[in-house]
């Protein structure tokens, strides 16, 4: 720790600026920096995404996401236990569906016994007080890798929404606490809300991926859920153009009007400006997804020694708090929570 101590001889000879305002005074020591700190990351801010796959007692590395594994259901339950111990309030589930079960219509998405539903039941049985979020979209289940139904090269909006409602319902029946539609179809929040309410799931929350961009940063995730090789074309007819900002506000406004309890901006670090605008404009519980590509990028530099791991991870997460996030979906959730438990 460097400290500035006045020295009489230096004071006589050194040039001195005539400054009455010296912002460095508030940074002179750790206690002073702590005292004026504006934002603090806590474990309460973290949502931990996990990948589920078939099998028992099985963990498979995801090559493009060093440190992240696909887990069999029993192993997901073990990670849920870790989340509870680390005070992480909520986990998010994504399936790696056996390619044999993928079809044009993504029918495995509405199977009440699919990997996600099995996981939710197993987790809720052991840890009923841990929040569980389920992604709603068809891409882990379709043979073409799109989030919606495809006909003659086009994504069918309204037909897709009908399937998404059924997907949300099987997840809610399994015990999911938060339905998180990531598909970007028009009108899906209202339809899912109506579907949940009609089935009596009045307390199931909706966190909408409201401002979700067509991003190159999802590459490693598609590796993890096995849709990278199969995806035909791109998702630009439903995910947002990365050049747009006002459009994000219109998307968020619609999702709120349709009944979203919480909204999300995705990806994270390249879209901090969007996060700030959304939070300032709507004052909603606002979440951000530090996506797979951001994780891969940081891990690549950390693993080569080009960036210092712990500091880089904590700085990247604190930046989201500063930009207005109430919570962060991040693959770094356990590392960050462990760091926070240790204290500074
Ligand atoms: C599925 C979905 C994606 C992500 C979350 N839900 C991928 C996509 O839209 O292609 C990305 C998460 C990440 O990259 O970490 N619709």
UniProtKB/TrEMBL annotation:
Protein name per UniProt: Delta-aminolevulinic acid dehydratase
Catalytic reaction annotation: 2 5-aminolevulinate = porphobilinogen + 2 H2O + H(+)
UniProt pathway: Porphyrin-containing compound metabolism; protoporphyrin-IX biosynthesis; coproporphyrinogen-III from 5-aminolevulinate: step 1/4
GO terms, molecular function: porphobilinogen synthase activity; zinc ion binding
Known EC number: 4.2.1.24
InterPro entries recorded: ALAD, ALAD_AS, Aldolase_TIM
Highest taxon of source: Bacteria
Signal sequence range: none
Catalytic residues (UniProt): 212 (schiff-base intermediate with substrate), 266 (schiff-base intermediate with substrate)
Keyword set includes Transport: no
Residues forming coiled coils: none
Pfam families: ALAD
Keywords noted in UniProt: Heme biosynthesis, Lyase, Magnesium, Metal-binding, Porphyrin biosynthesis
Organism: Bradyrhizobium erythrophlei
Subunit record text: Homooctamer.
Binding site for Mg(2+): 251
GO CC annotation: cytosol
